[in-house]
Amino acid sequence: MAGFRSLARQVRDPGCDLALRRYSLRKCLEKFAPYGHRATWDHLCSRAGFDPEDRSPDPARLVAALEELEEARSVWLAYETDFTERRRKEKHDGLRRPGSVDDWHRMTWGGFGVAWCDDPRVHPAEPLAEVLRRLITALERTPGSCCPVCGADRLVWRHGLDHEPSSGPVCTDCGILVPRPLLTARVLEYARRERLLMSA
After folding, report:
1. Among 10, 46, 55, 172, whose CB has the most other CB atoms within 10 angstroms?
2. Do 187 and 198 contact (CB within 8 A), yes or no?
3. Distance between start and end Cα atoms, the chain
4. How many CA atoms does the CB half-sphere of 122 hold within 13 Å?
5. Closest by alpha carbon to 173, among 192, 153, 144?
6. Strands 155-158 and 168-171
7. What is the CA radius of gyration of the chain?
8. pLDDT of residue 61
9. How many Å apart are CA 183 and CA 15, to the nearest integer?
């Protein structure tokens, strides 16, 4: 099975059939898809300017989508390297029990679904790398009261998400499932209450 880099080479290769280049970009999302496969694909297509169903998009647009994905992947891989180094040091210093951010991080290793968007058409508009930088910054500070990506404070608890965890606080503005460790207990409780009010 091809890795991310070899798939990226196929996307860039003008000697490859256009259908293969598009297919290779889609396959890259099996390796790295911050919003989940479908939402990340929709995001890349809209940012690069081609329809998600277009079977023969402009090759330059395919490469533009790939470049955005690669930049975001570099941001996430650097974070994972730092995370691994920090955990190694903590273990060396006798801190064996990981924190709640670490528990969340284990579920997102490799970058799949780190900013999960259950509705593939609702996702942040900013470049993927910027979204991940905001998320990483939030991971490194104390829990807050709003979405770490867009700053909105309207969060609603949703169940039945096509992700693990399958329920949690979703930002009604940008659509991401906000990692629970990034929010205060009060905000999480309020999000649960909002869900109950909306379903009543």
Report:
1. 10
2. no
3. 48
4. 12
5. 153
6. antiparallel
7. 18
8. 98
9. 48
pLDDT-above-70 percentage for the chain: 90
Better-predicted residue by pLDDT, 96 or 87: 87
What percent of the chain is modeled with pLDDT above 90? 75
E strand or H helix at 158, and its extent? strand 155-158
72 half-sphere exposure, CB direction, 13 A CA radius: 32
Report the alpha-carbon distance of residue 149 to residue 183 in Å, rounded: 12
H/E element, 72: helix 59-92
- CB of 128 within 8 A of CB of 68? yes
Residue 19, strand partner residues: none
Query: Cis omega before residue 165 (within 30°)?
Result: yes
Average pLDDT over residues 53-57: 94
Taking the C-alpha atoms of residue 8 and residue 23, their distance in angstroms, rounded to an integer, is 11
Task: Tell me the pTM.
Answer: 0.90
Strand pairing partners for 144?
183
